[in-house]
Design goal:
- The strands form 2 sheets. The chain has a 4-stranded mixed sheet with strand order 3-2-1-4, with helices on both faces. Strands 5-6 form a two-stranded parallel sheet.
- It contains 6 helices and 6 strands.
- α3 crosses α4 and α4 crosses α5.
- The model has no long low-confidence stretch (mean pLDDT 91).
- The chain folds into 2 domains: 63 residues; 80 residues, Arc Repressor Mutant, subunit A, CATH 1.10.10.10.
- The longest helix has 15 residues.
- It has 186 residues and is an alpha/beta fold.
- Keywords: DNA damage, DNA repair, Methyltransferase, Transferase.
- This is Methylated-DNA--[protein]-cysteine S-methyltransferase.
Length: 186
Amino acid sequence: MNETHTAAATLAFGAADTALGRLLVGATETGIAWLGWRDTPGTRARATTRAGLPVVDDPARLAAALDGLAAYFSGEPHAFALPIDWRLTSPLQRQVLTTLYESVPYGKVVTYGELGERSGAGVPAQAIGQVMGGNPIPVIVPCHRVVASNGLGGYSGGSGVEVKRWLLTLEGALPATLDWDLATGP
């Protein structure tokens, strides 16, 4: 969880083909900084602009993350233990997302309010929902595992709450429904 940034930082991209489409992963020398739901030139440009870093070709930097995503989407219980570069987050986001990353394992869920308490952020559940909506590294930093006290809650990743439902079903946190196919996705 190194938060130190070098003056000559760069951003490298890699892509993972999944049941939810081709995901784009961005990493600096410090760690994973970005995961986008589509690998398109526009997504790459937005990530590059947001990070404000030059892009380099460095497949080795992404290997562990791409291998982890392949394992995760194959249905293998997988705990991501990757270094994270939090440069695209505010101090509040960093506090809450670090707590989520370190304390909510595969197949488990936590409510927005519980995560707020656990993180010591001192903000209401609604603010925790906003932090989840701004998570720059979904799936790896598992914001899909944060649910409302009365249901799934929202999800801004992919095509929305159906992606959240799909991910939680893949992890066994929700029972599969008759019209849901884990092999093909939503």
